[in-house]
Design goal:
Strand order of the largest sheet: 2-1-3-4-5
Number of strands: 5
Shape: globular
Distance between the termini: 29 Å
Strand content: 5-15%
Order of helices and strands: HEHEHEHEHEHHHHHHH
Mean pLDDT: 84
Oligomer: single chain
Length: about 230
């Protein structure tokens, strides 16, 4: 990933977008420097902090007040999943985007269950990463194809569970894929938020997944909903 990937019109394309405060967490200085150079190409992405470890990230986060954190997973001391869990517990409004070189199912599952919203590979283009940061800020999931495939392969007999979804649950799953929050789904379906919460819980249970992100990955990989 290079700053050149952003293209000469990156600043112009960012016009009118809200500024997103970003923190980078990675134990490799050269990676942080590269990401910092990339972020500077986009007017709506503001690098507010860097951290070289999980412990440092937890100390810096309340001071820097980022909207989105780019989180490496394999670090000495606190790993990315543990750091994500602690960060989300302390700062639930902060969205975490896992950015790593490893698509192994256990890593994908652990960080998503810890509260990360998205899982991306470090080979992603700058433009796609910028869009993923914006999506995370809006509460929408972005998964690298490798991560989605790893989740699907790790899910036990998903095809046996899908047939149990009711028509309404299929509809709710489709809205999850669209990136809608529970209040948004309630408004779209003209039902109460508690009803939506119950539907989402049932969908996760029937699909055999732990969270919304895993449900979206499974739905996309298995073609369970139309986009």
């Amino acid at each position: 990933m290079t700053e050149a990937d952003a293209g000469p019109d990156a600043r112009e394309r960012a016009a009118g977008r809200p500024t997103i405060r970003v923190m980078i967490v990675d134990d490799h200085r050269i990676v942080r420097s590269g990401l910092a150079a990339f972020l500077s190409a986009f007017d709506d992405l503001d690098l507010v902090a860097e951290a070289g470890s999980g412990d440092e990230a937890l100390r810096v986060c309340p001071i820097a007040r980022p909207d989105v954190v780019l989180m490496d997973l394999v670090m000495p001391g606190l790993d990315g999943a543990t750091t994500t869990r602690l960060l989300r517990e302390r700062h639930p409004t902060v969205q975490v985007v896992a950015l790593t070189s490893f698509p192994e199912a256990d890593l994908v599952s652990s960080v998503l269950r810890a509260g990360a919203l998205s899982y991306l590979m470090k080979s992603i283009s700058a433009i796609d990463l910028a869009e993923a940061i914006r999506a995370a800020h809006a509460g929408r999931t972005t998964l690298a194809p490798e991560a989605a495939q790893a989740l699907v392969q790790a899910t036990a007999h998903p095809h046996e569970m899908v047939s149990d979804l009711t028509e309404r649950e299929h509809e709710v799953l489709g809205l999850l894929v669209e990136g809608l929050s529970n209040p948004d789904i309630a408004e779209r379906l003209i039902v109460s938020r508690s009803t939506v919460k119950a539907h989402v819980s049932t969908v996760l249970s029937k699909l055999g997944v732990a969270n919304r992100t895993e449900a979206v990955a499974l739905a996309l990989q298995r073609g369970l909903v139309r986009r």
